[in-house]
Amino acid sequence: MKTLVVYDIPDDRTRTKVFETCKDYGLAHIQYSAFFGPLNQNRRQELYQRLRRVLGEKEGKIIICPICDKDLSLLLEIAIPEQAAVRSTDKKTASSKGPLIY
Length: 102
Known about the structure:
Elements lengths: L1 E7 L3 H13 L3 E4 L2 E5 L2 H15 L5 E7 L1 H4 L5 E2 L2 H8 L10 E2 L1
Helix pairs in contact: 1-2
C-alpha cells in the first residue's frame, strides 16, 4: 500500500528533521511538504511514532494517509514542466500546448 505524508511545520529545524525522516523511510519527495511511497502498516506506524517524537510539543501538523491501489488508479495530476511554464510567460514564444493531465 502507498502512503502520502503531508506536513505544515513553521519551524525550519523541525521541518528539516521531518523531511529527513521521510527520506529515511524511502519516501519520494513530491512537493515542498509532501512525500509519497510504499509503506506497509507496520512501517507506517513506525514512521508515525518517529515523526511524533520529532514534532514533540512544537507547533505543526503532519498527516500520514494510506492509499490503496484502487484509489491510486483514480489519481489525476496536472503538471506543467518548468521550461514550458517559462516559455508561456514569454508572449513571443508562447506554446499552444496545454498542461499535461495524467
